[in-house]
Write a structure and sequence with these properties.
Layout (H helix, E strand, L loop, with lengths): L1 E13 L6 E5 L2 H16 L11 H13 L6 E13 L23
Antiparallel strand pairs: 1-2, 1-3
Length: 109
């Protein structure tokens, strides 16, 4: 068994009206895009056209939304490195690969 790590990004958005919305993403860009979309939906804004999401712009939008009610609104995008165990699925070869080994009896001519 060997140990490796994968990246994951969590997005948490909430206010006093209900439970927090928690989402998990495999890329930072997807998490920031989801933050932008979530805040726009909560504010009744049009969705952003498809393009690369700017994390700073998404954070400014979320901060402006939170500033409306700073005691009850919150958001967070958090990066995680998750360790995972990778099983060894193949043993080490006893000889280099390439030509197959010859079997049989050698005869002299």
């Amino acid at each position: 068994m060997s140990l490796d790590a994968v990246s994951a990004y969590t997005l948490v958005v909430g206010d006093e009206d209900g439970p927090a919305d928690v989402q998990v993403f495999s890329s930072a860009e997807a998490a920031w895009r989801a933050l932008d979309a979530e805040i726009r939906a909560r504010c009744g804004m049009r969705p952003r056209p498809r393009r690369v999401t700017d994390p700073e712009a998404a954070a400014r939008l979320a901060d402006a939304w939170r500033a409306g009610e700073p005691e009850t609104r919150f958001w967070q995008v958090q990066a995680h490195r998750l360790p995972i165990l990778l099983p060894a699925i193949a043993g080490t070869p006893s000889r280099p690969t390439g030509r197959p080994a010859r079997t049989g009896v050698l005869r002299s001519a």
